[in-house]
Design goal:
heterodimer; A: 177 residues; Glutaredoxin; 5 helices; 7 strands; elongated; B: 170 residues; 3 domains; 7 helices
Amino acid sequence: MNRYLVPLAVFVVLVVLFRIGLEHDPHLVPSPLVDKPAPVFTLPDLRNTSASINLSALRGQAFLLNVWASWCVECRNEQPVLMELAQKRKVPIYGLNYKDNRAEAIQWLDHYGDPYVKSAFDQSGRVGIDFGVYGVPETFVVDREGIIRYKHIGPVTPEVVNDILLPLLSKLEHPST
Amino acid sequence: MKAGQILLKFRRQCRMVLFLGAAILSVSTMLQAADVPFEFKSPEQEQRYKELTEQLRCLVCQNQSLADSHADLAQDLRNEVYRMVVQGQSDQEIIDFLVKRYGDFVLFNPPVKTGTVLLWFGPFLILFVAVLIVVRYTRKNARQASPELSNVEQQRLEALLKRPPDGESG
């Protein structure tokens, strides 16, 4: 009996480990920026060349910062989800237009929808590096003190909105409950 | 007269060939320049840049170093490393800059801490367990291989031992 028990136990442990391994996407790199202050930046406004966007001016309210680009294919799938979220008016969404061409970016927003209060135009991608961006789209949840509370890598889906973002945002709005 | 004309034509052709050659050369040096865009103040800086980009990992194609990767982000990060090397920042400052933004994941040689203990010592743990299993298994087999002899076998063994060796009888 014992003879079969040990290999069986080893087998079960391996199956469990492989199962866990399957659920871990190696492309999802945990960000060291979570629970740290969001990097400060001043960038030109995508739509308004003369205006600039300063992240520290946004203190006092939790917001989402969505990194997007017109060359990003996954962003097209994400945009309807962000549009719906923006219509709920629960949280302002700011855009970080990453390594893009200004005219193409504006055209893309006009075509796929513009859920953003404003989009910052990060042409060189330097601000993206400060945020540890390595794949577009990425979405950061920043609280009213300017601390990054969560980072979502890849397109935001309705499940992500309902299961993660909205509960987290209501927790940030009412810290006691 | 005719010989002079031929000579003139020949010289014109020569000039054409030289011009084309120079053009090709300058284009090829331009292409090379695009491949190695960085200029360093000293060979020591260039060496540091090379070593740093080889020990930093590209986040897009994860098993390539920054030096090897053709990803857009890798190029941007190489630019950053170059900028910091030329500005005279230390290796540790440059590594800290990247770890602060991308985490220990950018290091091919991550530090030993709570999150990476299993990564560093897991293989030794598995080796230890494997050695334990092998030792137990071989001991068990050794015991099984030498069982007690039965009475009949014991008598046969003694008879064989008493018999004179084959070499002497012949």
